[in-house]
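Quick one, T. Sequence first:
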Amino acid sequence: RSGEMAKLTQLIDNEVFRAYATYATIVLLKMMLMSLITAYFRITRKAFVNPEDTASFGKGESAKKYLRTDPDVERVRRGHLNDLENIVPFLGIGLLYALSGPEVSTALLHFRIFTGARIAHTFAYLIPLPQPGRGLSWAVAYSVTISMAYKVLKTAFYL
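Structure tokens:
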């Protein structure tokens, strides 16, 4: 058992893994914030999808008018869905990348660019900023994940 604990301690002492843990936490918190923003928009726009959510606005027919879609709520939801589609792969591939022994400076570059691009993507979605801002921020983050995946495959399988 002590050998297993030593391996965990070594992982925590690994500078690349600590960098990964830091930036993974940042993007996960950002993604969680999107849930709160969605809730805020639902409440302020009075646009709900579940009948029980409208109970505080009345009963019966008077509450049914709040069972609707709202463009602002849907925009936030699309941004959140985009996070799920891009941050989840980053978490898995980024972990494998961090464990593959990259240089600290290269790993930090990957993690920082991904995190910055995803934050920029969120602002571009929520404000909204004109294209190609949102598309470029998505492409940059996606490219970083692909780059890490390539480096993992190259290290693990000698591609």
